[in-house]
Sequence to fold (475 residues):
Amino acid sequence: MTFFEQQLEQGIFQICYCKNCNNTIWPPKEICHICHNKANWKKSTNFGKIVEFSKKESTYFGLIEIDDGIRVLGNISSVSVPKVGQLVRMNVSFNSKPNYSFIVENN
Amino acid sequence: MSKVAIVGTGQTKFSKDDDNIEKLLFESASNCLQSTNNLDLNNIDGVLVSTNNNSKYLGAILSETMGIQPKISHSIEHLCSSGTNAIISAYAYISSGLSDMVLVSGVESATNPGQVLEWDKSRGILEHPIYWGSMLTKSHKRKFQTTEEELAIVSAKNHKQAIDNPFAYSNEPRTISEVMNSKQITDDLRILDCSRSCSGSSSILLASEEKAKTLSDQPIWITGIGQKTTSASFTKNILEEIESTRIAVNSAYKMAKIEPKNIDVVEVHDAFSVCELMAVSELGITSNEKSGEFIRNLFNTENRMVNPRGGLIGAGHPLGATGISQTIEITNQLQGKANKRQISNATTGLIHNMSAAGTSSSIMVLKN
Fold:
């Protein structure tokens, strides 16, 4: 498992970035794709905004933008129809693949 | 630099069922070689195989089976656009003088590892293409007021056009109403809005200008090529755009010295209904706002200009073979051999093939 995956397993989303370029590296990699220096890590705020959403059966899912412009796909918990731009809180886990899920704030 | 021509083509029927990829590969390659005049196998000095299958050494295996001992032989994988990537590689070998004649064969089995890009961590557990297809569709509806009926017309048109394609996985007509009432996959996708992973194979023989004249009475020339990869991760896309297509097609138009208005017939990569609307816009044939109306008019007037063989939705999508089948369709159209699918007086055609939610696009312009 990679460091990113190990941290997800513990419920932590680590943002991969380059101290040298101040550049976000997503998806996470060992090296910066600009200067090729070793990548660094910082914890996500675990908040994001809905870019787009849809629904499969009774579950909403969507594209969410979290810290530093990083976008991920995940399921969204909401008692009402979500809105583009709405604030969501992120939970993460790892079980053979990353799992990002979101709860609409002030639901 | 030598000019490069398409001098032979061969296909197998596409199917929803799994099949042996070597059997399919040999069938389409054999059909392709038989379609040429006066072919001496000793003159084929390149054999390329495009596939997402994990089988090894398929270029050499195909060569041995066909009785060819080429100089150049290898496989090419680039997810859904493997086929056009292989043809463009063959073009480069011939135009540079490294090779004179290259057999390009694409093959896939219905269950293949090319449907999911495990590397893309941004997809989380939602790794199946239906999730990005839903995001693109919802976003197109939101930004351009695209209606569910306009999306359904793409599928109804392509199913209707596939009726006259003997290699399509299904020849069943689907009405707009049937598409709109087909099984709901997500709030923004019906099952008939989705292309289907298939088994199938297609092959094409490319030759230098000198060799082409002895092999075909109607060689079709590759006059424009454009390629662009913007990323591998889906989530870096702007949802309403296919930037890679826009960049690639501009290169292809420039190389071919043509404009969108010169295109008589086009094969576009309709992985989902919305992709056809986005593609005709990014190719400069119409605008995003008018793409739904444009496809509706084609459907109402039975104009087969876009995806005459039925596209991926109507014909099926054997990933490694798709780009080659698209190229064969444009070749047939420019040779006047497309039977009931024929566009009258077609002289210029274009192929649009893309991968992984449009993160990479390949374009070719063909002329007769």
Notes: Residues 3-43 of chain A form one domain. The radius of gyration of chain A is 15 Å.
